[in-house]
Amino acid sequence: MIVVIIAFLVPILLHRFNMRFIPVVVAEIVVGLIIGKSGFHLVSEDPYLELLSLFGFIYLMFLSGVEIDFSRFRPSPGKADVNSYNPLAVSLVIFSGVVILSLLFGFILMWIGVVKEPYLTALIISTVSLGVVLPVLKERRLTETPIGQTILLVTVLLDFVTMIFLAVYISFQSQNLHNVLFIGALFVVAFAVYMIMRRYQGFPVFKVLRTGTVQIGTRAVFALILLFVVLAQSFGVEMILGAFLAGLLVSLAAPNKEFVHKLDSFGYGFLIPIFFVMVGVNMELQKLFTAESIIVIPLLLFFIYISKLVPILVLKKWHTWRETLGSGVLVASTLSLVIAATTVAKEFGFITEQLSGAFILVAVMTCLISPILFAKLFPKEEHRRTRVGIVGANHMTMPVSLDLQKEGYEVCLFTSQPENDHAEGEEIRASRYPMKQVPNLEVGTLEEYGLFQSDVIVLGSTNDKLNIMLAEYAESLGKERIVVRVEDPDLFDFMDKEKFSVISTLYASRALMKGIIEAPSAVRLIVDEGESLHEVLIGNPRYDDESLRKLPFLGDALIMRIYRGESFLIPHGNTQLRLGDRLLVSGQPEQIARMKQELE
Q1: Of 19, 47, 275, 333, which is most buried, counting CB atoms within 10 Å of its CB?
Q2: CB 434 within 8 A of CB 412
C-alpha cells in the first residue's frame, strides 16, 4: 500500500512544488531510499513487492524494445538536409567510442592497482541503464525524434551488448561455453517467431478479435513477453534480454499509436513505478561508504562520464552543444548491470567487497545526477512546423504551396522541371515558390533529397503511375498522411482509399460545384483565408481522456467534429479526447497554431 501510494503521489508533488526539472524516476528512487533500508525502514522484504518489481523491470525492458523505430534506420544523405542522419549509424560510432575508452580506463585502473581484471571493469564502465534513460526520454517526448532514437539506440547497444559480453565472459571464466550457444538459440527463436507473426498478423480473424472483451493484441503481447522471458531463463540467459527481444518483435509488427499508448499506460501507470521505488528501498547506503570506496568513487565517476561524453560529441555535427552534452550526461546513468557485474567480479575475486560497494554507489549516484543534469542542459522542445513535401510543379500544386506557407507550414515543392501548366520554366525558377529542383522524380532521388522525411506527402505530378508508385513506397515506410493525384478514372477507383487520400481535378471540380450548390457557406468557410478549417491530431498523451471543457487554450476556436478511427463524434463539453483523435477545428491561424503546439 505504501509503495503504490508513493508511486501515485510523487508526480503530483513534483508538479505541485514546481520541481518538474527532476525526472519522476529519480524522485521515485529517492523516496524509495527514504522509506527503505537506507532510511526509515517503512517497507520490508515482501514477496509480492519483489514479484511486482521484477515484472516492472521486465515490462520496462519490453517497452524499450517497442520504442525502437526501425523506419529511422534508413540512410538520409546530406543532400536532403544537413540536420538529417541515420541514428543507427551514428549510434554504432558512439558505441564503438564508448567501448574503446572503457577498455582504456579499465587498464588504467588495473595499472594503478585498483582492479585485477580490466575487461570486466571495462564492461562495468561502459554499461548504461536503459531503465533510467527510457522513462526520461518518454517524459520529454523525445523517443520519436532523431536525437531521441540515437540516445535510445546507444543505450540499447551498450546495455544489451555488454549484457551479452558479460554472459560470454562468465561462460569462459566458468568453462561453461554452452551458454554462448543458448544466446544464439534465443535469437534464432526470435527470428522464427517474427516470421510467423509477419505471415499471420494480417488475418481477418485477428482484426475482429482486437476489440471488446477479447483484446487479442494485448493477450498476444503478454504471451510473447512471458514466452521469451521463460526461454531466456531456461537457456541461462538474462531474462531482460528476452523481454527486450519481445519488444523488438512488437515494434517490427508496426502497431498503431493507440495500441502502444495502451501498453505504455499499463507499464508506466502501475508496474514500472513500483520497480523504481523498490530500487531505492533495497539500497543500503550505510554499507557502501568505506575509506576505500570514498577514494575510488570520484575516479570511477570521472571515467564513467568521460567514456560517454567524448564519443557522443559526434552529435555536435547535427545538434547544439546543450543537446549534445545533455545526451552524453544522460547516457552516463547506469544501475542494474553494474550490480550484476560486481557480484560476478566478487565471486571470481577480481574486486574486493569495498570496491564492489564503490561501483554500486557510483551507479546509484549516476542515476540521481544524470537525469537532473539532462533536464537542466537539454533545451525545452519547441513546436516544429508541419513539413509538407509536394511532388510536381504545376498549376494545381504551386498556388497550394504558397497558401500552405501562409498558414505556417514548412513546404518544399520537388520538381525535375516545371510542368507546362500555364507557367514558363525561367519564371518559376525566379519566383517565390518553395521549389527544390532535383535531377529526376525517382524514388531514390526523392529519398536522397528528403521528400520522405516530410510529415505530409503530396504526390501531385501529372503522371498518375509515378504518383501511385511513390505513394506505395511512402506507405511502405510507415507514412500516414499521403495525398495522391490520380486523373485516370480507372486508376482512381483502383486506389485504396483507406491508405491514401486520393484526388483528381475532375473529382475535385464535381465535389466543389456540388458543395457550392448545396452548402455555399460551408465552402466559403473552407476556402476563407481568415478563419478556416484545420485538422489537429491528438498526439500528446497528456490530453488522453481529457474532456473538451477542461482544455484551457481553446479561446475562440470551435471544434466542429472529432474523427475517431472510421467514425466521427459531434463534440460537446463532456466529450473525452482519445490519443489519435483528429479534430476538425475552425478559428484564427494563431489560435490553431497554439492548439497544434499543445495537442500534437
Answers
A1: 333
A2: yes
